[in-house]
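Before the break, one more example. Copy the sequence into your notebook; we will annotate it together after we see the structure.
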Amino acid sequence: MSSPSEQSQPLAAPPWQSSDSGVRITGVRTILTAPERITLVVVKIETSEPGLYGLGCATFTQRARAVATAIEDYLAPQLIGRDPADITDIASSLLVSSYWRLGPVLNNALSGIDMALWDLKGKQAGLPVWQLLGGRCRTAVPVYAHASGRDAAEVEDNVRAYVEDGYRYVRCQVAIPGALTYGAPSAASTGAGDERGGSLQADVRVRPGLTPNAWEPDAYLRVVPALFAHLREQLGPSVHLLHDVHERLHPTQAVRLAKELEPFHLFFLEDLLAPEDLGWLPTVRAQTATPLAIGELFTNPAEYVPLVRDRLIDFVRCHISAIGGLTPAWRLASAAELFGIRTAWHGPGDVSPIGHAANLALDLAAPNFGIQEQHVFNEAATEVFPGCPEVRDGHLWPSDTPGFGVDLDEKLAAKYPPVDPLVNDAWTRTRLPDGTVQRP
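Here is what the structure looks like once it is written out:
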């Protein structure tokens, strides 16, 4: 971790910054902690005003140490001595300071700086960040929960439990017998379903010499439409159902799935296509009315331009730290609004509570908010991060605390050291039955 520098002048001060008194950045540090066994990266920007600091989320958990190095060795030296009020200029100058730009490591590093500066500005103003964005557009923010199961009946039971708790939006994932899939537990390949779920089992048999527990797209394409047919029949039309493909299909398979799910009126189908296959979106759009949410893997906001301009998607679905933080995300939301496209920011466990608070600020202030993914943090995480956004009755509720409203207890954070590299990354090493690498 870097310590506050004694350097009094920034490496490249903007022409309007004088040497007169004023709040200046005196230190930039990264804190890595894993209270849920997922490494989170937090940036802390300290200032010349005692007790005034900002916190930001720079979590790219698969490459956490690379992000920390980028911040401490390359970004922090450019910030010492600068006025933290100049968020836009700092974001713009740091973005081009490496010449090559808009990759996930540097973007997450930039995000930590950007969010910390917004947190600082809110604290200086005595206002929550959502007020700085223009104030709220809604009382609270609807979120979607994750319901999964070994079969359709178990998924149904979990959806019903969420509905009883006040949720109106639920993402549904189901196991594929004999194969690995995203977002659901494993299932035995010999099960036969039950009286409510019917048989959702696929004929997936592992043959000698082939990859066991591989990803099997044909089985997936049989099971998922049957899942949603079951859920609609049993739950009726009132609950909003979502599903995440996680870019695991060939484009022609993706077209087929989107068409087969259309009768079940999904709220959205997530990441139907990989970024490399987005040229197929016009084909998908021409053949189905199933709403699409795309962009979790985007690192350049400009990747959205053709999708938004041509109205090929219904929701911008990005990990805001991966595109550089609150500043580019707010601009993206405003651009999407002009085309009738809504937001659905990524909100998994590998976004820190500070990052979730940034999502919440955007959700409250954006007229074109669509839905927010939720993650309910465990007790350890809420102790490490006092002020975690409150989830109640299927909604995130804002606070009036200045900044993002989330703090960091560094002593407690130190009790949960970062996870060793690659420990949690087995899911990224997915293969097909014949051994071919599959995009995760």
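The chain has 13 helices and 13 strands. The longest strand covers residues 25-33. Try to locate both features in your own notes.
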